[in-house]
Amino acid sequence: MRSLKFAVVGLLALVVAACRTAPVQNVSSQPFPADAAKLSMAQIEESIIKAAGEREWIVQRKAEGELIATYSPRNHLAKVEIDFDQSEFSISYVDSTNLNYDGTSIHYNYNRWVNNLRQDILREVSAKAVLAN
Known about the structure:
This protein has 3 helices and 7 strands.
C-alpha cells in the first residue's frame, strides 16, 4: 500500500511539472502596421530596442535587421533573435537557462514574455510611425 502511495505521488508530481511547460511559440512574419512602411530600418530598430528595454530585455545588434534580446528575471534566462525589415518581424527562440526547454516545450512563462515583447514592439513601431507624419 505504501509503495502505491509513493507511485501516485510521483505520478502527480510529473503531471504537475508537465503542466508548467508549453510548446515554444515563435513569432513568424508578424506584419507591422501599414504606416510603418515609411519608417527607416534605423527607426524600426530604435523602436524594437525601446520596446524591449521597457520590459527589461537587453538587446544587442547582430546585423542590420537582426537583434539578439536577452531577458533574465530571477534565476531564469531567455534569449531570442528578432529579425525584421520594414514590413514585418519575427521572434525566434535561441537559448534559455532554467526554463525546462526540451527541444519543443519550455516553461509557460517564456511564451508570455515573448508575446508581451511582440505586443510592445507593435505598439512602439506604430507610435513612431504616427509621430513620423
